[in-house]
Amino acid sequence: MKKNREEALRWLDQAEYDLESAKRNYENEIYAYACFMCEQSAQKTLKAYLYFKGERYIWEHSIQKLVEKCKNYDEEITKFLTTGAILDKYYLTTRYPDAIAPPAVPYQSFTRKEAEEAIHLTSELFLFVKNKIIV
Fold this sequence. Notes:
- With about 140 residues, the chain is mostly helical.
- It has one domain (about 5-135): Nucleotidyltransferases  domain 2 (Four Helix Bundle (Hemerythrin (Met), subunit A)).
- It has six helices and no strands.
- About 40% of the residues are buried.
- The model has no long low-confidence stretch (mean pLDDT about 95).
């Protein structure tokens, strides 16, 4: 597989934008969307890494599964499996009322603490991958 640094950097750029969006949502007490944007940032971060390694057509959305795929290139990335488990739960539950138990609705269901943790975990993952790509 031919490495694709240019494509990786495009994905990493979008991942960084999503992480910044998460931080803005957090500052405005929009915790569900802060969590969701962290999930999106983490997905794009891992896809950036896979593109960098030469992968093509990455359709996976689970962060845990993306980490598993990335470990084929770097075992160290497995330290983010727990991050994946935490962030994966924000893919649907932050947006769709039928993804959480009634009578709750997503925008009322996520806390400041959850958003803080999501931002922290996503930032760690982002920096780890960025340091692998931008050498």
